[in-house]
Design goal:
Elements (H helix, E strand, L loop, with lengths): L2 E2 L2 E2 L2 E6 L7 H14 L4 E6 L6 H4 L8 H5 L5 H4 L1 E2 L5 E3 L13 H14 L5 E6 L5 H9 L2 E6 L3 H16 L5 E9 L2 H18 L3 E9 L2 H8 L4 H4 L4 H15 L10 H11 L3
Helix pairs in contact: 1-11, 5-12, 6-12, 7-8
The structure holds adenosine-5'-triphosphate and magnesium ion.
The site of adenosine-5'-triphosphate (ATP) has 20 residues, from helix 1, strand 9 and helix 9.
């Protein structure tokens, strides 16, 4: 991770996908834990403000959440929890379904909070909600890298396409990374990739790269039941091995060679974007 204009760069990766239940949260959690296990200073931000799940998957019971920071009730650092292998987590709370305009008082607090963390982090992973709401789009467009999680089924492919189309046509994003989840074989992942590219190539001028294939693996459900990260509980399981490979890939992505690589700018883009 390089230095940018004398500032320490942080890789900001949003995990999204359009359709619900395709495995976004499991990908975000296990990618984050794998990066932490590699020694990368990683922060996982739960940006699913409606149905927060990161804390549940990691067995964390937060007292305060991102929503309290947004409401100006506490500082970002106060809501940071410890996950496995040194991972830091900023949990969200369930039930904040409504979109709220970020009060400008929250802007300063968030910008200050994230800029304070900048030198302590290498990677920020963001788990987003299902769908294509303003909240999801705000977080994704503020990040540097977009991971689209999809399964090889028509509804997931259609929803992933709708999300990519929106991010491209309305927000100018043109590079996407695909993680094929719940695949039965490596061919299954390639089929999904081909099907998605068939539609994007016809209608959009964007690039998609297949960066991971996570097998369908019952260990994931077992880990969820025990509220522990798969990569911690079953490190030798097929899915855990695939998550480690994904983490190595993410770690090899170059940092944006501009101030985009600075967390402060991430949050400025976020609060400047629209609303969360
Ligand atoms: N590779 C996999 N193999 C087996 N089960 C999986 C796999 N990935 C995810 N699951 C299961 O699928 C379900 C949904 O996963 P997850 O909560 O990560 O999806 P999501 O996309 O975050 O959902 P939401 O849209 O509700 O936020 C969970 O029960 C999880 O255990
Ligand atoms: Mg989720």
């Amino acid at each position: 991770m390089g230095l940018i204009m004398g500032m320490h760069g942080v890789q900001v990766v949003a995990v999204t996908g359009g359709k619900g239940g395709v495995g976004k949260t499991n990908v975000a959690v296990n990618l984050s834990v794998s990066l932490a296990q590699m020694g990368r200073r990683t922060l996982l931000l739960d940006a699913d403000l409606g149905l927060a799940n990161v804390d549940i998957l990691l067995g964390i019971s937060p007292k305060e959440t991102l929503v309290d920071v947004i409401d100006g009730k506490c500082a970002l650092r106060d809501v940071m929890c410890n996950g496995p292998s040194g991972l830091k987590v900023i949990p969200a709370s369930s039930g904040t379904q409504k979109m709220v305009q970020l009060p400008s008082s929250a802007h300063a607090g968030l910008i200050h909070g994230f800029s304070e963390l900048n030198d302590e982090l290498d990677v920020l992973v963001i788990d987003t909600a299902a769908g294509i709401s303003d909240t999801v789009v705000s977080f994704v467009r503020a990040a540097q890298e977009t991971i689209i999680v999809a399964c090889n089924e028509p509804t997931s492919i259609t929803d992933a396409y709708a999300l990519i189309k929106l991010l491209n046509s309305e927000h100018g994003l043109f590079q996407f990374r695909l993680v094929a989840n719940m695949v039965r074989s490596s061919q299954d992942a390639k089929d999904l990739y081909t099907k998605l590219c068939n539609v994007t190539d016809r209608f959009l001028d964007i690039g998609i790269q297949l960066v991971g294939a996570i097998p369908y693996d019952e260990h994931i459900r077992k880990a969820v039941m025990r509220r522990k990260a798969l990569t911690e509980l079953y490190p030798q399981s097929p899915a855990a091995i695939a998550f480690k490979a994904l983490a190595q890939k993410v770690d090899s992505w170059p940092l944006a060679s501009s101030p985009r690589g600075h967390l402060e700018f991430f949050i400025e883009r976020l609060v400047g974007a629209t609303m969360i």
